[in-house]
Design goal:
GNAT_dom, about 30% helix, Acyl_CoA_acyltransferase, seven-stranded mixed beta sheet, about 30% strand, alpha+beta, Aminopeptidase
Length: about 150
């Protein structure tokens, strides 16, 4: 069964907020993030994704189940992925790669994708997927405690 990339709308905000709790939990391995007094992580600032035409929120579904999301931002100079998440149960099944290829197909042009310097699993994933998408024609540098890949699709 394949995965589906669905453009999210403001009606999907609650779904995204719930998925973000899992994402932030996973991310807390790489950043000092704590839950608030209510037992939840702070909500991610999604409001701009409903009004800014250069912001693209997507949900990822496998069958009838949500398994992740991706937030894409376009600027005058490049497109970037602000956040990318596949639930752990669905990782290593090729779903992330399939979604990234769909995103690249929908957002042609210059790209910059970054990962925290200490998030080595994310770096390995992005190097592998980008390399496959552009046949090795990308550059990589360290910038502001991040590893950044630059390329065109």
């Amino acid at each position: 069964m394949g995965v589906e990339l669905i453009r999210a709308t403001q009606a999907d905000e609650e779904v995204l907020k719930h998925l973000f709790q899992f994402y932030i939990y996973d991310f807390s391995e790489y950043m000092p993030i704590e839950v608030e007094g209510n037992g939840k992580y702070d909500d991610y600032p999604l409001a701009a994704y409903w009004v800014n035409p250069a912001y693209f929120p997507y949900l990822i579904k496998k069958g009838v189940h949500y398994i992740g999301f991706v937030l894409v931002k376009e600027s005058r100079t490049h497109t970037s992925i602000a956040e990318f998440f596949i639930m752990k149960r669905h990782r290593r099944g090729g779903f992330g790669k399939a979604i990234v290829h769909k995103i690249f197909h929908q957002h042609r042009g210059n790209w910059e994708i970054s990962q925290l310097k200490n998030n080595e699993p994310a770096q390995a994933f992005w190097r592998r997927v980008i390399n496959e998408a552009v046949a090795g024609t990308f550059t990589e540098e360290e910038r502001d405690n991040k590893v950044v890949q630059t390329f065109s699709v």
